[in-house]
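Example 233, ligand uracil.
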Amino acid sequence: MRLDKFLCETVGVTRTQAARLLKEKRITLDGNIVKSGAIKIAEDADVEFDGAALKLSGPRYFMMNKPEGYVCSHEDASNPTVFVLLEEVNAEKLHIAGRLDCDTTGLLLLTDDGQWSHRVTSPKHKCDKTYRVWLDDPIEDDVAEQFAEGVMLRGEDAETLPAQMTVVDEKEVLLTIHEGKYHQVKRMFAAVGNRVVGLHRETVGALVLDEALEPGEYRLLTADEVAQFMPSK
Ligand code: URA
C-alpha cells in the first residue's frame, strides 16, 4: 500500500495533511525519515509518526445506544447523524448494520466489516431483533396470533415471517421479528389498526443493549459478541 494511504488510515488525516507531515519530516520508515507518500510499504511496515509506532487496525465493531432524533446515514439535510456521536479515527469508514428510524432508540451496530454486517442484516440468516413498542391504542387480544401467522404489509406481496409478541402492558409490548423490512414494526402495527408511538431496539441476535450505555454512548463489542454472528456459532 502507498505510504500516504497508510498515513490517512492510521493517523486519520487527509492525503494533503499526510503530505504535509511527510514534508515536515515527522514520518520515519525503518528509522529513516521519508518524504514521499508515493512509496509502497507492507501493511506491517515499521512506520513512526513523531516517534510513535503506527499500526493499521483490524475491523472495528461497536454497539451504540442510539438516541432519538439522530439519523442512520452519513449525511442528512435536517437532522444530526449517528456518526457525529462517534469519536473515532476514520469514523466515515464505518457503516450501520441494521438501520433504525430517526425516532427509534436503542441497540445500533456499527462496523467496517461488510461480511459481518451482511450476516447481521441478511434475511437469509434470520437474525432475531427484539423491540420494545409503545402503542397509541390498547393492544387487541388477537394481535399476537396475527403476528405469529404473518400479516400483509401495505405495498408488499408476501406476508411477514412469523413474529413473537409478548404483552407488557395494555399499550406496551415486546416484539421479536426475524427480518428487517423498511419501517417493519410500525407497518406491522398499522396493519392491525394500531400506531407505534415509541420504539426501542433491545436485542439483535444474542446481543443485548448494554444497560451501562446512556443514549448517545457507544462501546466496542467484545470478541465473543462479534463471534456470535460468525458461521461457527
Ligand atoms: N421497525 C420500524 O418500524 N422502525 C425501526 O426503526 C426499526 C424497525
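Summary: DSSP finds six helices and 13 strands in the chain.
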